[in-house]
Protein 1
Amino acid sequence: MSLPRFFLEDQVLAQETEPVFPLRLAPDDVKHARALRLAPGEHIAVVDAAQDYFECRVEGFSDGQLAVAIARHEGAPKRRARITILQGLAKGEKMDAVIRQGTELGVFEFVPLACERSVVQLDGKRAAKKTERWRAVAKSAAMQSGQPRIPQVQKPQTVQEACAHLADATAVLIFWEEAPASAKLAAALSDAISAAGTAPEEAHVIVAIGPEGGLAEEEVRALSASNARSHLVSLGDSILRTETAGVVAPALVMHELER
Ligand code: SAH
């Protein structure tokens, strides 16, 4: 059983001078720690604000905070390819599902894409509120699934805005329901990785997924032009729902990269 994991936003454990010290957890995390009924002597995993990894021993609660001692300083986790999902904005709980499950898989970053055929369009205020919610979803999924870091969730962007940041990526994979069946993921990924001259574990792969209504042709064109190593990819004859494709595509990319 893996240890319960906590992320610190503004505390660097290397700077702590006392053997027992309080963890400065976010209020929700204190609640979570209480709900786990952590008892003195139990161990937890802690990732601090400097992305440093520790195993800590619980000493108790003091002044409403969890007091711990460092049991072990752990080495950095093994390097892994970074996957950024450009996820076409979808209705209701679908974005939550993509972010939760993508985080469980180990996705590096999510960029909600305001697409031409997105049913939902978010104005500034609603976009900010949603982003805050998605970040909370990512954090709790990262804690629950023992991720080495919390993935970033960007504010919703237009395809054009997102494209401006893609030139340096190892690969841009455009999952398009209208791509020919011959547009295979394995070939696209290995072409891009050899063209970039990158080791698979150093790769940064962009996975673009359309909203419920799919990607418009001009969006596909813009994504294709955003990077010299962009490829159309087909997932076969079945048309997957956006929230299915948003999870299946990164899982397949990870599987290919780790092969
Ligand atoms: N345009 C479609 C549905 C889009 S599916 C329609 O309304 O009939 C939503 C997104 O999931 C697509 O834009 C694409 O990014 C991805 N997707 C679903 N099935 C796919 C497939 N067979 N191949 C590649 N991408 C797919």
Protein 2
Amino acid sequence: MTKKWWHDKVAYQIYPKSFLDSNGDGIGDLRGIISKLDYLKELGIDIIWLSPIYKSPFVDQGYDISDYYAIAEEFGTMEDFDELLAEAKKRDMYIIMDLVINHCSNQHEWFRKALADPDGEYADYFYFRKGKNGNPPSNYRSYFGGSCWEPVPGTDKYYLHMFAKEQPDLNWENPKLRQELYRMVNWWLEKGLAGFRIDAIINIKKNLDFPDFEPDGADGLAGCWKMVESVDGVGEFLEELKNNTLRKYDAFTVGEVFNMKEGELPQFIGENGHFSTIFDFSAHCLSDGEHGWYDAPPIDFKEWRDTIIRSQLEVQECGFEANIIENHDEPRGVSRFLPEYAQTPAGTKMLGTISIFLRGIPFIYQGQEIGMKNAVWNSIEEYDDISTRDQYHMARHAGLTDEEALRVCGKMSRDNARTPVQWNDKENAGFTTGTPWLKVNSNYREINVESQEEDEDSVLNYYRRLVKVRKSQEYKEVFTYGRFVPVYQNTDFIMAYYREDENQRILVVANFGKEDEELELKYPVKRVLLSNKNETETPEQSLKLESCEVMVLECM
Ligand code: GLC
Ligand code: CA
């Protein structure tokens, strides 16, 4: 395997709107980010992924871009961005941006021109299609609910949008459009960007017949992902994108890929794959409901453990995936993956340990390093997220009461991850001197950066140690390239694995159960590298773990 510059890096996702507000307008911004680069450096971060900061009407919080070459005023200016790049560089840090090219905003110049002349050149930048017998061209439900087709005013045509109607899908079949996109990607890479997180990218290949599918919900529609799964050939687009842009810059790319087909992993992340890496969402998919959040199954520990193990074993045969507990589309991991008794600092550290030492590129999501949790939401009006509002209505439609539907959203809402970062115990958690655009989690007095900075034993300081051990000269090699070997799989509550190469063997072992556990050690232990209960004594023969205890041990 050829070694790549990004293999041993640790990444951090910033959701700019909620990170830190520097000018009191209630919205996080680039100057806020610049002021926290040292904080991120101290955490051991190498790569920073910024969720979209491009000009946007923010219907889907910036994932609806109206100008790919401009910074949203809310976040600052291009000068601020250049400064961020320069300041990151000074600290040996890399910036990657979100690349949202499956769709743009309906306010983008291309779409406005297309609407103005529905038979003209720009209409072909999108999917404009005639309806069928007074109905839309097909029966697809968009990811955010409702039909994927929206009428083009003054015509008998519709345009396709797999997300909100304000996010028209771009027609990748049109070579002119593709060239425009490549030009834009190169423009950012020229500026010094290290790469991209590539949004919703699997959706760019459409089945141009747009066939109907068996309806799968009360609305009589069928999930649009079925169309995506019915077609081959996305790889050709991805290779062209790579060869015209990313490859020339040795850029780091991490794809958001769902609905991959069986056996395709090597094509995506193998030695000459479409991307450097993709996110491992396998554990998150365990709470996919058949119809929506309202029938999402709870996470079962064993299933969660086996899913991660299966995925690690598969991935190491061909490349690297990016490991996450949470991101801006998911609820907080502590609230989701830990049973209630484990939603404590000890449990939080345990979950973090298991994730950070997996084989792959660790991505920490803002606030994860202090153990931020889901918020308590009292009414649907408190939410901003377009998808949460859709899921709420779907739940009501399926017969759930207001209270039940709110409980469902409280568990799954994307806004759980989007509440402002809790910097201190002052007003608005130190996020803004104004009114925050989304409410601050009410637990900010107990969970915040400032108080954790002062506490040696805090989640934050533990995360710093985690990253430090992973990146230390002594263990970097084994944590980066060492094989993942699961162990103690026949237990009910232990999640454990070795990371090993010819020279070293590290055991990462955690007790997710409520009771103490005793395990027989298979190899003698040389050294305790980490323990969330500050255990320093080297265990012999057997290992005793309390509830929520995790240890990282160097073995013979
Ligand atoms: C991705 C983003 C999500 C967004 C969607 C549409 O899934 O992560 O936040 O809503 O794409 O762009
Ligand atoms: Ca601001």
Protein 3
Amino acid sequence: MPDCLFCRIIAGEIPSKKVYEDEQCYAFYDIDPQAPTHFLVVPKAHIQSAAAITAENEAVVGHIFTVIARLAGELGFAGRGYRVVSNIGEQGQQTVPHLHFHVLAGRDMTWPPG
Ligand code: AMP
Ligand code: ZN
């Protein structure tokens, strides 16, 4: 396993507040929430970022979006809308190099993002 914060969270070595888990992905609340609801959905397999998605690992991305849509319904914010964001690399302001999708809900978002 690479020495990776999110791999260690998935492994249970670092505590997190779990939203959802299955064999392919793990979802947990962001430690520094930027909206009333803010959680992250990550593949259990270590993938550096969305820039490292290939024909070999692309299926997990579709799965994660299926999970997000289901959670949005279950957690009650699907109707009002929400935002899914994945930061990539240095200028994209990615701080943890393990692919993750931010799910933000519960307030009006602004555009363009900063
Ligand atoms: P990014 O900056 O897009 O790479 O997103 C990384 C996110 O991980 C940030 O929103 C952080 O607040 C969040 N984060 C960092 N450490 C933890 C942790 N231990 N538990 C939950 N979220 C974390
Ligand atoms: Zn990792």
